[in-house]
Design goal:
Elements lengths: L2 E5 L2 E3 L5 E8 L8 E6 L5 E7 L5 E3 L7 E6 L4 E6 L8 E8 L3 E3 L3 E5 L2
Parallel strand pairs: 2-11
Antiparallel strand pairs: 1-3, 3-8, 4-5, 4-9, 5-6, 7-8, 9-10, 9-11
Length: 114
Amino acid sequence: EVQLVESGGGLVQPGGSLRLSCAASGFTLSNYHMTWVRQAPGKGRELVARITRFSSTYYVDSVKGRFTISRDNAKNTVDLQMNSLKYEDTAVYYCNTYLPGDYWGRGTQVAVSS
């Protein structure tokens, strides 16, 4: 059974850092594109970062230079290191992949507040 489980969210002050992790089971994530998507309160989902099976990375402009997506093949996890967090980064962050079949985790809440 394919599962994605996110962890690492929490409350952080502006300028702080968090590291999100997505643990995959039921497939080998290094063979697929892995994406972090977020949904802020009252807004639609937004692609934040992607790492392809070729290890290319993509970031939405608003997080470039602050977020880094990486993959740990031994652990079958994909992480999102988030630095210099801003109020507007507050959202539920989801891990997503298409195998085929569109799979999502349940999300982890990130709240940036003073």
